Amino acid sequence: MRSRRLTGVAALAVAALTLAGCGLGSSDDTSSGSKPTVDANAQVTGEVSFQTWALKPKFTTYVEGVIKAFEAKYPGTKVTWLDQPGDGYDKKVLSQASAGQLPDVVNLPPDFALPLAKQSMLLDVGAADPKIAEEYVEGGVQAYQYQGQTGTFGYPWYLNTDIDYWNATKFAAVGLDAKNPPKTFDELLAAAKVMHDKSGGKEYMMSRLPGIGDLTNAGVKVLSDDGKTFTFNTPEAEALLDKYAAAYKAGYLPRDILTQQYLGNSKLFTQNKVAWTTGGGNALGDFVKDNPSLKGKVVPSPALDTPPLYVQGLSVSAKTKNQAAAIALARFVTNAENQAAFAKIVNIFPSTKASATDPYFSKSDGTPESDAKVLAFESLAKAKVLQPPVISGATNDFINQQISLAISGKVTSKQALDAAVAKANQLLAS
Amino acid sequence: MTVVTDPARPVAVPEASGTAPPRRKRGTFGFNSLSPTEKVVRYLLLVFVLLITIGPFLWQLSTSLKGSGEDIYTRIPRLLPSQPTLSHYGEVADTIPVWDYMRNSLQVAVLVVGGNIIGSSLAGFALSRLEFRFRRIVLGLFLATLVLPGEVTIISQYVTVRELGLANTLFGVALPGMIGALNVLLMYNAFRSLPVEVDQAAVVDGANVWQRFIHIGLPSVRGTLSVVAIFAFIGAWDDFLWPLIVLTDPDKYTLTVGLQYLSGTFSNDPRLIAAGTMIAFIPIVIVFATLQRFFFKGVEEGAVKG
Amino acid sequence: MRYHRWFTPWVLVIPALTWLLVFNLWPSINTVILSFTNAKPIGGGTFVGLKNFEALLHDEQLRWALLNSVIYMVVCLPFLTILPLLLAVLVEKKLPGITFFRTAFYTPVVASAVVVALIWQWILDDRGLVNGLAEKLGVISGPLPFLSDQWLLLFSAISLTIWKGLGYYMIIYLAALGNVGRELHEAAAVDGASAYRRFVHITIPGVRGTMILISILISVSALRVFSELFILSGGKGGPGGRDNSVVMLIQQYSQGFEGNLGYASALSIVLFFVTVVPMLLLARMNRKAADA
Prior knowledge:
- The structure holds 3 protein chains of 3 kinds.
- Chain A is an alpha+beta fold.
- Chain A contains 19 helices and 9 strands.
- In chain A, helix 11 crosses helix 18.
- Chain A starts with a helix and ends with a helix.
- By secondary structure, chain B is an all-alpha fold.
- Chain B has 2 domains: about 55 residues, no CATH class; about 220 residues, MetI-like (MetI-like fold).
- In chain B, helix 2 crosses helix 14, helix 4 packs across helix 8 and helix 8 runs antiparallel to helix 11.
- The relative contact order of chain C is 0.14.
- Chain C has one domain: MetI-like (MetI-like fold, Orthogonal Bundle), CATH 1.10.3720.10.
- Classes of the chains: A alpha+beta, B mainly alpha, C mainly alpha.
- Chains in contact: A-B, A-C, B-C.
- At the B-C interface, helix 1, helix 2, helix 4, helix 5 and helix 6 of B face helix 1, helix 3, helix 4, helix 5 and helix 7 of C.
């Protein structure tokens, strides 16, 4: 009886297999190419769709204002605005892309834009608009240029970086001065030891596992120049992991961080469990909102080494039916004026060179929030993209798992790094 | 084996027509009277399980009521808000069109519940009470569905729905979940517990398949039917990723998707999110509390008969 | 002995069968095809033969994941088959306030993952409820690493699964208990049978079909566990990815724009064969029970 049922199922499956010509649903070639067909000065008119990521409802007024101004500047245009929720944005964009229905102008971080650019789904806006390199900061533009791809695949929109935040109360309790916090990784380790020893092992300074960004900061070359192989299994990388492993073993870090989420350390900081976290220029407000007792106790300082650069940008779909209007819109939303206005209602930083001299960003009004903002703005000048956009998904997970394994002491740092590099290369090649 | 029988199961024949509306009568069955000791023991056990299970719900409720000046992530969770306020609920309603989203969710849920009740009871009835060729193969297919690899299929589901012209519609959101294999199996299992003699008696009386389904089958599986309804409702109500992918137009968002607007890129108030979650939770409680009465078919019919 | 036209059953079955074919079987066949390719979520892929399956043989993480899944099933099966039944018997009796208890017991099933994670971290972390209590009682000298040790994390996740499953399987049992004739219970009670004897000799046989169906559901969902391990391991599968389940691996490989759908599909197919075994065994028991 059972075997008959199974053969029945199998027969059906085979029949369907032979029918399944469209098994690879999305293999139709987007051979339309990514080079623009009109120049940026063509007549701007008609309908264009615009997709943002999690800006509703806080910034509805702002975005609608920008759209209205755009439609006024280019009579005959009509912008359809779509805002997608924060969670699941990658899957949403993925389903849009595989259905060939990317909006004309779409907000994509560099690591989302890369695979789409590889599939020729995005327009090379650098070719359409040669002025892009003059008007936007270098780091922002570079984030949308990829090893192995020619072109610039997005207008940089807004930037952010991380700075350090310290809990002054916890510092004072063990005789450390939060006004003079650690400036290098080694000083941080030393402070972590003090925190541990003086509090009888009850308090923690650090609560973060190192990632690719930390390796870059330690002088490790993560990716080869041709972008084809990973190279981060170096002695420097080993030395860094060894330091973390030793600190972990000595109890300077909470044990449970081996399985903490990416935002674990800022959550622990908010919960008043650790004395250090990194966060954007606007993080201070969130700490105090979730835990009002932290008010007045948090001291910001610049990031330990090279600050990370986070870029958001607007890309233009290669399939857009209205290239002129799409390019004009992406350009308009990211121009100096509109970015500066945006940066004044939320703590982000403009990617236009013209904003660099705006005193709003470089002068503090004396509040801790404003201090943090100025610190972050100053850091931005030095900030670099620390994690190559090619590291995402399974590669990222696997590397983090291996790092976590090395820190736990189950394998040596070398074994972990070698395994991570081997797997990452295998995934890159596939 | 031709007919599935199970002599271990008692012959609990409902009143043949099933038209008399079964009404709950309190304490009519003498068996229900408990000694005081047993009552105390039962309540102790109930409270014990309650303590184990109620935690997340309480935390969510208390967070949603906490004032903006209160810590949320205290080291030891504090359940009683020190500055209780209902303002977050109002804020949720001001921030997003809760009622519209709820109406959308409700439309999807009604479609899914309706589809499952009808589709899975028909199939379950046929599979357990009627004899036909390939019956076992069909049954095996439903069983196999439980273990089919469904992890990487969401994009191809989307392609199917889009090709049917249902992208960006609430019907498209509801469609794939409208008949679940698990529900078919649950109904199959429920119909099976009805003794075959009842059917045979009905056949002798000249009842056709449809009459047997309506008058004998359905009344005897009300409990499982309400379980199916609960599962279908909650599945449809709580789903996030699928409606997100199918829907483009924010006016059509379901509640779980719409609630995402409470946690924007630059703003994140856990109190607000907790209030939103509580609002989404209320319909589930209503549906559950309403339908759980029907689990107790045996009890009610005993009462009617007695 | 047929009392209906030959097509009547088909009319009843066709709607459900259509859904099954379109929304379950068809995408799964697609998965089978994908497993022989190097497809990415966008841009399709090319046929690579058995390459993905060869790679599976050398995947150390898959070996851990399979081991974890089997442990998961073996531990969950007895607990989740019995405890929810006991719970169902407990809440079956109509007592004042019982609706409240029934509903409350079901809430973990619908609680949001974020909140569940938060609560369980409070309970299990180094300074959490369990460690705090145990230390106060002097049972342990230092905190147990419930959330960072490979095996303790697995068992923490198993307890989370059992906790969530209580309410879920409880209501399936409740509906089944409704089918057990009250007359039998009453007769047995009159005969002076103890509660325990009534449970073993009347309740359990009465819900045996349901019990087997539930066992199938438990083993299938234990082998396909995802959210509990994901929550407690911070989405990363623990140090070295040794606390992954097969579904977590599939999720890791298929996520994002550069997802390796071919490999993820091959993993899905492995998982299919792994879950089919206990299901066939239990289905066989079911038939024996029915034939008996």
